[in-house]
Design brief:
Helix content is 9%, strand content 24%. By secondary structure, it is mainly beta. The chain has one domain. A five-stranded antiparallel β-sheet has the order 1-5-4-3-2, with no helix packed on it. Strand 2 and strand 3 form a beta hairpin. The radius of gyration is 14 Å and the shape is globular. Bound molecules: zinc ion. Zinc ion binds next to loops.
């Protein structure tokens, strides 16, 4: 079982970001920023309906979508997290 360490650190990582057009239909499939396929949209927090998670069935990429600001951020994959966590 993974445990969260009490030690935290701040790291700087580069993220791919894209602005959605204001008439973009999220349910109709915002595009994956890695491969361009339509994302599957999830709403993990019912109290924050503007904050969505977009997952790509084609390449496995995850995205954080802020619907209010019309912004999509491609989240780091396992390699990106390993590089960010490297000492
Ligand atoms: Zn993809």
């Amino acid at each position: 079982m993974l445990m969260v360490s009490s030690e935290q650190e701040t790291v700087l990582i580069s993220l791919v970001i894209s602005r959605l057009s204001t008439d973009h239909d999220l349910v109709g499939g915002a595009p994956c920023l890695d491969c361009g396929e339509p994302l599957s949209i999830h709403q993990p927090d019912l109290n924050a309906p503007e904050r969505l998670l977009g997952t790509c069935d084609a390449c496995g990429a995850w995205h954080l979508i802020d619907a209010d600001r019309a912004v999509t951020v491609l989240l780091p994959d396992a390699d990106g997290l390993r590089i960010a966590a490297a000492p």
